[in-house]
Amino acid sequence: MADERRSLAKRIELAATPEQVWQAVSTPDGLSLWFVPHENAGGEIEGDFGGGNSQAGQTLELEPGRRVVFGAPGPDGVPPMTFEFLVEGRAGTTELRLIQNGFFGDDWETEFDGFGRGWDMFLHNLAEYFRHFPGLPVTNVVATAFTARPGGEVWTDLTTRLGADPALSLDDQVRLTPDGLDPIEGVVDLRGDRLLGIRTENGFYRFMSDDIHHMVNTSQYFYGVTVDRATRTAAWQTWIDGLAGV
């Protein structure tokens, strides 16, 4: 079994019903609302992390409406990593707990930091979805590239090419102008070390780079509007590849 000592736990209170939260963590359509695009693939649930990178898993344990565990069995039939979601109703809100057990490599403490940072962003997406776009369907655009360039250098190039002021803070109004792509207008709703999130009238833009996974990424969510996903994904993948030096 996954080493219980190597676990990561997150907890968030959401302005939604337990039924809404359950839908968001237990189905491909629900996971796509705030995480990465998911779909059913041959009896498994497959997530698209961009740049041709995908990960498939199975529902390992299920208590409908309350608890679900996802994982992909390894060569010995035991999943090296599992993701558990627990849903519990409160007075007018719902508490969601996430527990990740197991990590990919030997340097699990570094992975712990990287996964924790990623989960914080995605769970923020879920909270903001219920706050601003409840009930609306999503179209996802995700682009990812791996790079040998230092993360700080990549991030400086990313913000420069976006036309983003390095001093941007939470709640600042912005208009970003990525080369060759449509402008992005909205408010900064996420800001951290090599992390920038913009909430627009119709969704979210997320940008991130790091030295842990040696990657640069954008995840974008468009709610209740028509978006040409394939064309937009290809355009942003080209843009991200340019940053990575691919």
Automatic annotation (TrEMBL):
Pfam families xrefs: AHSA1
Recorded superkingdom: Bacteria
Domain (Activator of Hsp90 ATPase homologue 1/2-like C-terminal) ranges: 16-130
SUPFAM superfamilies: Bet v1-like (SSF55961)
InterPro entries associated with the record: ASHA1/2-like_C, START-like_dom_sf
Family of this protein: Belongs to the AHA1 family.
Annotated protein name in UniProt: Uncharacterized protein YndB with AHSA1/START domain
Provenance organism: Actinokineospora auranticolor
